[in-house]
Design goal:
The structure is a homodimer. By secondary structure, chain A is mostly helical. Chain A has helices at about 1-5, 20-40, 45-50, 55-60, 65-95, 100-120, 125-140, 145-165, 175-190, 195-200, 210-225. At the A-B interface, α2, α7, α8, α9 and α10 of A face α2, α7, α8, α9 and α10 of B. The structure holds a DNA duplex.
DNA sequence: TAAGCCCTATATCATTTGATAGGTTTATTG
DNA sequence: CAATAAACCTATCAAATGATATAGGGCTTA
């Protein structure tokens, strides 16, 4: 996996003229290692070796292991912002407006779910970023607060609000927050426990037909969650 | 957390006449450490210290760190078997019988969900066992195969079968398996990401009113999942 | 060309961690 | 009582790990 990332340093989208800098390479490899091994499990030597540099280079660019981890978290917040913010911002705008009907809220929720399904069944780099976030939320390493405050919490609060509106309430109650957590959690385990999912489903969750089935199940569960 | 376990070595159920053996104590503390810190994060010294013994005692009873971890997994398989097997076996018996109606299957699923909600909102010891399992499924340490084959896989296959019957099919299709995974995953994150859940919900998921709300959301999502 | 800075490598340190060698105590047994 | 084995401890080792002191190369700039 890490080898594959090394040999494909650039996403097909960015036709970057200048080659990837050492700092960017360490960041990318570090994200992969932390996502796969966890903060304690990923060693600085492992990351340095996979990035094709020596140990002090990491210290030079990021101070220490904590700094690298934090930098990975910051990078991911930026990445996910670019990807998810468009739909999230539009939905929040509509929700704050107060003019959202229950049906419209439901459509927004389905759109968000589709975006998240796409995120966890996307290319390796994006999936590793997602894994990094999910692992960090349970490990609480150096990047925890950043990811929780900047990514997880606002996203979850938006979903909870939309659920409330979809269920005909104007304000969120405790149950909406529980529902939001559980709904999105149903998706997260598919990437967090990818080996388990692959073994049980007989193939990667990011490939068809699983990709389609996951979206379908998510919509069904959402439907039940907001049913009257 | 570990301190609390140390000071409360016996579950209120078992009025054991003989005190806990050293081996049992190490096993219990080890489960807690592995559940909280992961296999790499939990050090043998940490476990030995928390159990009130020295390092070689672990080696004496379990060979090495891997052996202790595996023994924890075996202990947990036994524990969960005692707790979950009654309902699981009855459900499987009914499912294999072939005479299960869709409504009956749905009732079985609700019963299983209620059992799992109880498991993740139960006392510390049982929750730590659950955390151990969930962490191991994503980390794939020494105890992975045992937990996957003996606990996770059979349970998930049962749920998938029941979902298929509840949806009016006689055999499970890929979508039922995806649905089973996602349905149970919605519960797992509440204990795996307990700090996140507590921060977001403003209180432990194992306390009211969250306990009730979790069960309610689970039933709603199940309802949507098996809806025609 | 010389000075200075950015970036990277070699070599090394102190700590942590898993493991073990050898001795001590306690209980059991012939 | 002597002998044996089980259970545990002290002391220590070797490997792994995060970190760093020091030096070298390449580039710009004066």
């Amino acid at each position: 996996m890490i080898d594959r990332l090394l040999s494909a340093p650039l996403s097909p989208l960015e036709v970057s003229p200048e080659p990837e800098t050492t700092r960017q390479r360490i960041l990318r490899v570090g994200m992969a290692c932390f996502a796969q091994e966890g903060f304690a499990g990923a060693t600085t030597r492992m990351i340095a070796s996979a990035a094709g540099v020596t140990l002090p280079v990491i210290a030079y660019h990021f101070g220490n292991k904590d700094g690298l981890h934090l930098a990975c978290a910051e990078e991911i917040v930026e990445q996910h912002r670019r990807r998810l913010l468009p739909v999230a911002a539009a939905a929040r705008c509509a929700a704050d407006d107060g003019s959202l009907t229950a049906d419209q809220a439901r459509i927004w929720l389905e759109k968000i779910l589709a975006t998240l399904v796409a995120a966890i069944t996307a290319d390796d780099e994006q999936r590793l970023a997602t894994d990094f976030v999910l692992r960090e939320l349970s490990e609480q390493g150096p990047g925890y607060h950043l990811l929780y405050e900047e990514l997880w919490k606002p996203g979850m609060e938006l979903v909870a609000e939309l659920i409330a509106i979809a269920r005909g309430r104007s304000a969120t109650v405790e149950g909406d927050r529980v529902g939001a957590m559980m709904l999105l959690a149903s998706l997260s385990s598919l990437t967090r426990d990818e080996p388990v999912a692959s073994a049980f489903l007989g193939g990667s969750a990011s490939e068809e037909p699983h990709r389609t089935l996951i979206g379908e199940c998510a919509r069904r569960m959402l439907s039940g969650l907001i049913a009257a």
